[in-house]
Fold this sequence. Notes:
alpha/beta, Rossmann fold, seven-stranded parallel beta sheet, six-stranded parallel beta sheet, 13 strands, 35% helix, globular, binds adenosine monophosphate
Amino acid sequence: MSFSSLGLSEQLVRATSDQGYDTPSPIQLQAIPAVLSGKDVMAAAQTGTGKTAGFTLPLLQRLSEKPRAGKGPRALILTPTRELAAQVHDSVNLYSRYVPTKAAVVFGGVKINPQMMKLRKGLDVLVATPGRLMDLYQQNAVRFNEVEILVLDEADRMLDMGFIRDIRKILALLPAKRQNLLFSATFSNEIRGLAEGLLDNPVQVEVAARNTSAETIKQSVYPVDQSQKTALLSKLVRDNSWDQVLVFTRTKHGANRLTQKLERDGITAAAIHGNKSQGARTRALADFKAGEVRVLVATDIAARGLDIKQLPQVVNFELPNVPEDYVHRIGRTGRAGEKGHALSLVSADEGKLLAGIERLIKKQLPRKEIEGFEPKNNLPLKPKAKADPSKARSRRPQGGNGKSFGPKPAGRSGGRGRQGQGEGQGRGGRPAQRHSA
Ligand code: AMP
């Protein structure tokens, strides 16, 4: 299968060849014809599946079929975080090289005036985070009367981050006749509710999760005491000569402290999280990509949407509070068929979190103790013979990776346990510094 056989124009196919893509990814195989047909689409797809091109390419084709009448935007792409917005915008620019559509991106945390100027000049595709988009609308800087296509990207994250009210307000302002595309990694009741109100007889698109069963990702657990984690991480970075490792912490505070400790230990490191200015985050990511910084320390929400090609190594310095985040985290490695390794430094107090993750991914992760770092506190870490299903948490009642489109599960499974992180521009929830590294 080639991109041209999916019905994409020669200009768009050329743009994909420029990127070095020879074959469409599974999500692209399904999503591109569906979007080109003009129907609404509901897609279960995570970062790393090629979903961005999956909606961007056909969207550009539809827009380039006729010229813009007014100032636009004609396509609106909403994303949960600034990073993801910036990346989607970059992708739109790459793929629209040979078509006449114009794109812009708006997000919070930076000056609003330059964004107003951009909007005034006219554009076809607007990539936006919901909060800033509403601010711009309230200041009469943007109108929605020409919107033909709406994309909600990473809709689950948008809800988790408290954007539902902004999203509903925006939806109410859009022309009734339009094409709607909803992309989400997971399908909670809340997402299904949103989808029901939004989508008209949607084409459902689903691909195998880039989850832990991805054979390209080797996963292991290193039992270690909390107090020894930094030293162990330094050792691992050195012994394995890792040049590019993404390390996850649970909190912003923890990310800062770990970064400082690594730097003191002579390992170049930078932190990326919601308390950093946009400039600082962009710089940290650029330094990391350029190989000037060996370790990038990130919190879950800040890491969302980071597109780093061929990242060989991901480390969970602390396990996430929400098991699904583990899957998102390790999905940062082993991309596009590359081999990747995800390892987790797990202390005794994280035994329950580990058990929750292993239940979700339906496998036991191999344990590996490192000489000199054997934990003093013995952990409930050895794989249990059999988990007690009655004690399983039911945050994703449908089980598995939560991506099924099957019948609606009973019980609520919204974004609990996440509000507190308060990153990006979510409008609810104060930072909850429950654990610090
Ligand atoms: P996404 O899931 O949209 O974040 O994309 C993940 C990565 O896959 C990005 O770095 C894309 O540039 C890359 N990518 C997207 N489509 C393809 C393709 N058909 N072949 C190879 N790489 C791709």
